Amino acid sequence: MFRFDPSTTANRIIWEVGCASNQYLKYLSRMGLVVRQSIYTTVISYAGVVIGYINLLYLYPLILAPEQIGALRTLQDAALLFTPFAQFGIAQSIQRYFPQFGKDQRQSGAFLSLMLVAALCGFAVFFLVFTLFRGDIAGYFQVKAEGFLEYLSLTVWLTLILLLTAVLESYSRSLLKTVVPSMLRELVVRVLLGVLVGIYFMGYLTFDQFILSTLGAYLVCLLILVGYLWRTGDLQLSVKWPAINRSLSIEMIRYSLFGFAGTAGMIIIGKMDSLMVAGLMGLAANAVYTTAFYMATVIEIPKRAMSQVAMPLIARAFEKNDMEAIRTLYQKTALNQFIIGALLLLGVAANLHNLFTLMPNSAIYSAGFGVVIVIGTGKLADMFFGPSSEIIVLSRYYWFNLILLLILAAMTVVLNNLLIPQYGIIGAAYGAALSLILFNFVKFIFVWIKLDLQPFSIAFVKVAVISALTWGLHMVVPPFSTVVIDILVRSLVMTAVFGGLVLWWRLSPDANDLVEKVLKR
Predict the structure, then answer these.
(1) Contact between 409 and 417 (Cβ < 8 Å)
(2) Distance CA 157, CA 214 (A)
(3) Vertex 233, ends 39 and 394: CA angle to 5°?
(4) Which residues, 6+ apart, have CB-to-CB distance to 311 below 8 Å?
(5) What is the distance between the alpha carbons of residues 431 and 394, in angstroms, rounded to a whole number?
(6) Which residues neighbour 239 within 8 Å (Cβ) at sequence distance 6 or greater?
(7) Where are the domains of the chain?
(8) How confident is the model at residue 37 (pLDDT cuts 50, 70, 90)?
């Protein structure tokens, strides 16, 4: 019988070529997984946006007073702000160290058990600190947002629910299972909130009961996620925790602390503006600001979908020191994010007057027109620079992300204190957008210098030219008397022109391949 002998020169070459080909095929398979799951999560996210738009732009303004919307949004944003302080970077550590411990379902379950215990310990520390400083936190909202104080305790329990959800979502993403967590976060919770506000409208709930029921909606999503992981066999919790040597333990603790500070800084940049609007201007002003802010977040949804899928692959590439794979992910993700983000910003800006016209009490909420444009520009800048945060966090330079985030978080607070009293809600938007732009520019320079990676090419210039041509075309499209028809015609024309030029110029091979596959089917 013939036996393959890798010791000879010819056979060794064949062996090495075969191994390299196998690795390349695995890489292509994972890239295909990124594309497929990004598509699924993007579709889910946009379905969630539709539901969110119905809730926030129609049901809430129709049924709830601005002060009530402000109280609800302040509760949610406060819990989102507190969550990273409760988890101490555990979710980030799961994605970084999972490749070392997730060899099989038994080891994965043991690793998850350890992370859950660590997260609960972090929550216990947070609860103690919150209790000690509760009076100071309440004092910030005492003058302008006194109506929020009766719901302050609920933020603690919503924080716990979001903490456990974040840990399990991170674990699921490490398993490259992103669809169900995205569906729960983007779709299910918003459907439940829409149902709850409808029940409140029919008189079956008081407003206090409605606020309490929102925590139940998030809890239901957490329980569904637990059931999903249990059903797939990935939730095999065990008290036999994985053996971790001293040096790795120190490294994991250090990384978690850096991840905690970095995530906290990012949340401060993203959420502190709304809390400061509530504290400095009142709950009604926060209702207008958060509504406008949400209208702009539609732009960044593709970034979230791509990053959730790409981050585990970047972690595995760093584990193997495969810089070429990271370079490819960096370039493709940044370009695709910029293409989609530019089209979405154009579409939102062109139809913004129509969206405000469709809203109940539009005279109140149209004051956020400028906020949408400014925040949208900041979100586009965040997409333009690609997954630089993910690359830094997963590299040996993860400490730099912490330093930069803390500086920018402090700058955000200072800017908001200066700009909100002088310019109102548009001042908060200026502070948030400026922070995002500076944050991403510095990250880009750092990655370029330290890792010799940068995502840009002539294709970015071509996308900018296409964007300018598309906006110019929008300016000459005549307005229609019916708002819905105007939105449909304007959006279809802009999408056809923008998308057609992108495909004709073949700026994104992934987009061309996807369209060709769809047409063949």
Answers:
(1) no
(2) 11
(3) 55
(4) 95, 173, 387, 390, 394
(5) 28
(6) 113
(7) 35-456, 457-521
(8) low
Give me the amino acid identity at 311.
M
3-state secondary structure of 397: coil
Q: Show the tokens assigned to 33.
A: 């997984």
- Tell which residue, 383, 409, 379, has the closest CA to residue 267: 409
CA distances to 47, 175, 350, 383 from 33, rounded to whole Å, are: 21, 12, 34, 21
**Given the structure tokens 């310990």, which residue do they identify?**
121
CA 219 to chain CA mean position, Å: 20
| C-alpha to C-alpha distances, 448 to 253, 267, 321, nearest whole angstrom | 28, 25, 17
Query: Does the CA dihedral 203-209-214-216 come out positive or negative?
Result: negative
Round to the nearest angstrom and report the end-to-end CA distance of the chain: 46
383 exposure class (CB count in 10 Å sphere: 0-12, 13-18, 19+): buried
Q: How many Å apart are CA 515 and CA 496, to the nearest integer?
A: 13
Rounded Cα gap, residues 44 and 50, in angstroms: 10
**Model confidence at 508: pLDDT above 80:** yes
Token pair for residue 469?
A: 């041509």
Higher-confidence residue of 519 and 69: namely: 69
Q: Which of 273-287, 403-417, 426-440 has the lowest mean pLDDT?
A: 403-417
Q: How far apart are CA 59 and CA 56, in angstroms?
A: 6
- Write the CA distances from 509 to 30, 45, 205, 331, 495, integer angstroms: 17, 23, 52, 12, 18
Residue 361 DSSP code: T
In order, the DSSP letters of 99-159 are HHH-SSHHHHHHHHHHHHHHHHHHHHHHHHHHHHTHHHHHHHHTTT-GGGGGGHHHHHHHH
Distances (CA, A) of 233 to 83, 94, 109, 189, 300: 27, 18, 9, 24, 33
Confidence band of 17 (pLDDT split at 50, 70, 90): very low
User: By C-alpha distance, which of 78, 264, 240 is closest to 155?
Assistant: 78
